[in-house]
Design brief:
Structural class: mainly alpha
Largest sheet: 3 strands, antiparallel
Number of helices: 8
């Protein structure tokens, strides 16, 4: 567990402008491929995020999606309404609790989410192919460490599934 002194030492350091800017440019280009396709549908990045997680986790509840995205219910409702109206996502009534709304990607929604994921996978794999064989594990560990410590385990479960014992 790092001490408060080490946290202060990190904050006193010169900002890591090189890494901050590389992270910015990498993200800019990482989302640029999907942005072009999303624009054809009149969608933006919020639509992409919702579609991605609903497609990856059929039956996701609104509460679970809000927890993942950390956006307001109002923001989610606007995006979700458009995705439902354009037949990319459907909202089903819960089986045990009829008040609950379970979200599912339609075939059209799943196809779009998969198309966008493949574009981003291509960019990631190109970058990893230029690095060592251990790079994927190192990048995964690095990205996981960027996540707030109190949310890390939750994210690990979302991304990698429950750990097998």
């Amino acid at each position: 567990m790092p001490s408060q002194n080490s946290d202060r030492d990190i904050l006193a350091e010169t900002p890591a402008y090189d890494l901050i800017e590389l992270f910015f440019f990498a993200y800019r280009d990482f989302v640029s491929d999907p942005d072009r396709i999303l624009d054809e549908y009149g969608f933006g990045r919020a639509h992409h995020r919702v579609l991605h997680f609903v497609s990856r986790q059929p039956g996701l509840t609104i509460a679970e999606l809000l927890d993942i995205l950390r956006i307001t219910k109002q923001s989610l409702n606007r995006v979700l309404k458009e995705l439902i109206e354009k037949d990319f996502i459907e909202s089903r009534m819960g089986t045990s609790d009829r008040r609950q709304r379970l979200l599912h990607a339609t075939p059209q929604g799943h196809d779009l989410a998969l198309k966008l994921a493949k574009l981003q996978t291509r960019r990631i794999m190109r970058a990893l192919s230029a690095a060592s064989p251990e790079a994927k594990a190192a990048v995964s560990q690095y990205l996981l460490c960027l996540i707030d410590p109190d949310d890390r385990e939750h994210v690990k479960q979302l991304v990698f599934g429950p750990e097998k014992t």
